Amino acid sequence: MGTTILVLSKILTFLLTTMLIGFSMIQCSTVTYDKKAIVINGHRKILLSGSIHYPRSTPEMWEDLIKKAKDGGLDVIDTYVFWNGHEPSPGTYNFEGRYDLVRFIKTIQEVGLYVHLRIGPYVCAEWNFGGFPVWLKYVDGISFRTDNGPFKAAMQGFTEKIVQMMKEHRFFASQGGPIILSQIENEFEPELKGLGPAGHSYVNWAAKMAVGLNTGVPWVMCKEDDAPDPIINTCNGFYCDYFTPNKPYKPTMWTEAWSGWFTEFGGTIPKRPVEDLAFGVARFIQKGGSYINYYMYHGGTNFGRTSGGPFITTSYDYDAPIDEYGLVQEPKYSHLKQLHQAIKQCEAALVSSDPHVTKLGNYEEAHVFTAGKGSCVAFLTNYHMNAPAKVVFNNRHFTLPAWSISILPDCRNVVFNTATVAAKISQVQMVPSGSILYSVARYDEDIATYGDRGTITARGLLEQVNVTRDTTDYLWYTTSVDIKASESFLRGGKWPTLTVDSAGHAVHVFVNGHFYGSAFGTRENRKFSFSSQVNLRGGANRIALLSVAVGLPNVGPHFETWATGIVGSVVLHGLDKGNKDLSWQKWTYQAGLRGETMNLVSPTEDSSVDWIKGSLAKQNKQPLTWYKAYFDAPRGNEPLALDLNSMGKGQAWINGQSVGRYWMAFAKGNCGSCNYAGTYRQNKCQSGCGEPTQRWYHVPRSWLKPRGNLLVLFEELGGDISKVSVVKRSVS
Q: Where in the numbering of this chain does the Glycoside hydrolase 35 catalytic domain appear (predicted)?
């Protein structure tokens, strides 16, 4: 009997111990806020965060990226939630692969960081259609981001879907999970002025809807000054030390500290000096800020057709501390890490007191925080853009470099200066991988048959997305024009001129199967015109216009209403009787390319496709050509890229997965010297002038198998596949 009691006692003790351990592992957190900071379990926190967008990298990269963020001194990972990736058609959801949001948040939790989940669901983010699914545009009676019933119903439905999923996995801090903050809406203030009362009503509705979901964590609205209680309004920008929340009991938060800037095809590469970024962060902290999120900490890649803009590059590197390929970028990564360490040394004083500001000179100030028991923290600032300053503080002499802040955790000793960079600069090279392309083949789009296979015929010019529903970048507009045998140009006169007016984004022009050229818009001016003399013949002539989208717009007043495609006019000039307007005659429309219909990108595509092989495959450098080749995975573990410098414009796939759009558009800008000092704007420190904006395209190693990887390129303009190569990204 005694033995039985002893055994039962040991079992009970074991079960109680296991339960206690389990409880401690899932212990719920209380997240609130006051005027100083986000408060977690009763403790005010200085929180350092970084944006990493899960679809812009691969699941195999996530853990390494998050660990590097933690090693860099971050507390929080910030991400948007991408509605169009998760609900590609109404009620059909995708949470797999790069869109496995649950796996991403679990990985953050396992590494030991918090999460700020920015549900939106409008995200902007230079992402296709701002994150909205294109089908949403076709809901009856809808108007985006205003007091509109159909829009609010759809937005609430998706927001509830995400919140419920997070609750089911116990991801909110109130359930013991890592999510300490959520965001509803996104950067709405710029839209509000044009919407008036309907905009204010929408903001109030969105706030009430979000709070009513009972997540147990605070909600924020960024760039929305009239965010209603209890929503925290926050700042986005290159600097936010000017920012004050709309109520004195809310913390001062910077949801997007822009670490660099995005790139657009044909533009330069913006670089933000780390000295200035660190200066901006320190300025925010010394003014009483307590939450900073770097947008981006890792920018990643716009795989597939996810880039927006339009004209945003496939690379979303953003000059972030961790580069597009997942490698730390120095000196930005290490300099910010040292800044974070210095800030954390000051945390107790920073969250306990308001700064006492003392002038030390014309451009110099001291911001002093105290926390009792003799605790004293000082930030010594020199705002002069050119000259260092010698100051006296606390009976000590200090030299402050221009445009910098020195941090003194004890009001005596400098542990960090924003302009004094100790980290060495990364030397990045794209080097040969040793992997060669073999079994090259070519397939030419049959331009002559377009119009015969059209799926829609209509009088007049149709808007592109209304036809394609964004299932493809490409839409053929074809028509026929009869030329009388008596026309003067047929007897040696001047050829007529064809003009095409497009709302965006590019067009390739063919007449009677002959290529007459292309024209392109820009991100700043999507609309453009094509004009060229064309050789027509007596009788029927076929005009085929391939309109090309380069990402749908992601920002602007009611961008869902903006047109894409050839919706202006198509006119023949210089005929004997003047001009002939073709705009309102019968047009035939074909969405997509024949190669897309035949699924040429798939490793299991139909073997009956008549590919041109051998040496002939490399000889044709004509537009609208498909290429395929094979390569073996390079040895080693360095990140990989495609060098497409010999190509023109198009799209690329590896083993059926879309690398993204490519375009050897040459960068125009001002690439002079770059001084870190002085107010930064995206056109200040440019690089890459006279070179393709993006030459190299990230190929995740997880997409590869050891042998026989299929590369497919669709080339719109004409390129040389014999010079395409797989390269390694080497950093030293």
A: 38-342
